[in-house]
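Ticket closed. Logging final result for Golgi apparatus membrane protein TVP23 homolog.
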Amino acid sequence: MASSTAPLLDDDTLGFGEEEEPRNGKKLTHPFVTFFHLLFRVSAVLVYLLCNWFKISFITSFVTVVLLLSMDFWTVKNITGRLMVGLRWWNYVDDDGKSHWVFEARKNRINPSESQIFWLALILCPLLWCILFLTALVGLSFTWVLLVCIALVLNGANLYGYVKCKMGSNQSISRSLSDMTSDFFRKQVIQNMSSMMRSSQQQPSTPAQPNII
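Final structure:
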């Protein structure tokens, strides 16, 4: 499998890249998107906790939580990450049958409030599922451990993908800055060497004085 980081591509389906610049950083640019970013993942945790407390059927609880986690995975991967933080990750298979992972980043039109909400929800929910995993494991509830593992995989996949997008973007910026710095020093060294060679060639050679006896 190969991975790459590229500028985020525009998609006419969701009007990506066509939003207006946020005038006020405290006002949400995409309130409905932000709402659905929190809705499914918070609902999955609440349903899991309520099903444990009220002793609801495991099959009903399992199906409901998995459906909420699946909707959350699709929404965060395909919609909220693109609109709230300008990041996207996806996978494709080329003609040779090789799988390629693409991590894309866009550097403009990011609302600070939406970015904070996005990253907090993206990081805190997997941490909460880790606590629930330990609780189910200590209580020897192996059937619930399976459900929590599914939640960790789906939430962790989005977390890894977007962290990879963010880190890849920073690495590309630092790599370009280091390349510019090295090119600058290389040019300076070449200019200094050439100037030294020209100055040595332009110095007149003093004629040798004859020996007078």
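The chain has four helices and three strands. No further action required.
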